[in-house]
Amino acid sequence: MQTWSIFCRVVDNFGDIGVCWRLARQLAHEHPLRITLWVDDLAIFAKIRAEINPNLAEQKLESVTIRHWSEQWSADIQANDVVIETFACDLPTAYIEQMRSSTTPPIWINLDYLSAEDWVSGCHGLPSPQQGLSKYFFFPGFNDKTGGLIGEQSMRQQRRAWQSADAKQLRQQLAPKRPAETADTQYISLFAYENSALNAWLHRLKDSPNPIHLFVPQGRVLPQITQLFMQAELHAGEVYQYGAVTISILPMLPQDQYDQLLWSCDLNFVRGEDSFVRAQWAGLPMVWQIYPQSEDTHLEKLVAFLQLYLADLPDELAQALRDFYYTWNQGGDIAQSWTILNTEREVLRQHAKNWALRLAAQGDLATNLVKFTQSKLK
């Protein structure tokens, strides 16, 4: 059986390990491969998978061998057939030497960050000479000239089978202390960084004529809500009332359950890359807060994505959604765009569903990665 190694350095809280774990698990489940995932911070990994023991050098979970990537790297560790360096995390020098000395050099992949920028399609799959080997750049993306998005077949099957009764049961399970559901309640999940637009948006929700239930997983946005409420602390598992808004604070959810939360809301606010991708597979309206980068380079990625994502929407609605995304990421007046979006919810819902179908037609990242590497091994 072909052996693959995936190397992950945890840089941005849960995003890096979130992406790497989903990829490793899908490769192990859906393809005849032996997968090893090297992770430098097992304690962070344990936050999204409670089964992980941060003190073990090696363990196995869901058919994936997980090994601690320590500073003390053994020169005897043999290179696998395919080596994936995620997000330019720099492999150990001794491991590269093992790759160089292999009779059949491994296929070396640099899996990069997700971007909709035009240049990505031109660079996807290109080799780069590295220390006597070829390293191939592999880009996730939104068209058939890129690697696609991580999206397990099992997840997509479960999503298709997910019914309104399942959503109601999950909401009850996650927030048992909430008020009884009504037919006109709007459900929103909020996973975000600190945000200068948040308070103005919550003020508008507060005066909504219909009830709104806001699910807030614990994270960086929680202190801001705590300050708005003028409370010392908000607790996971508790429910708070803010005008028309019921706010449920959720503990850290397992990845699969977070996916189900996305399927069970009318609108999802997501951040970074991992939750952003999952919100797209949910096929429901979403608002993305992109991970901020120096010199505002992240805004170029935001513009590129919106150019694709909004292309099929009516002009006025596309402009309103664009304005809301920009305000959510940069601050500003949120009132007018929110009013338009909130009155066009059904159009946005159908648009999100169509977008998810379009992504699926391009194939998922793990399958495209296997096809790419097999073509190089021939």
Molecular structure report:
The protein has 378 residues and is of the alpha/beta class. The chain is built from 15 helices and 14 strands. The strands form 2 sheets. Strands 3-4-2-1-5-6-8-7 form an 8-stranded mixed sheet, with helices on one face. Strand 9 (186-190), helix 7 and strand 10 form a beta-alpha-beta unit. 39% of the residues are buried. The model has no long low-confidence stretch (mean pLDDT 94).
Topology:
Elements: E1 2-8, H1 15-30, E2 33-39, H2 42-48, E3 58-61, E4 64-68, E5 82-86, H3 93-101, E6 107-111, H4 118-123, E7 127-130, E8 133-138, H5 153-161, H6 164-174, E9 186-190, H7 198-206, E10 212-217, H8 222-228, E11 239-242, E12 245-250, H9 255-263, E13 267-271, H10 274-282, E14 286-289, H11 297-309, H12 315-330, H13 335-343, H14 345-361, H15 365-377
Parallel strand pairs: 1-2, 1-5, 2-4, 5-6, 6-8, 9-10, 9-13, 10-12, 13-14
Antiparallel strand pairs: 3-4, 7-8, 11-12
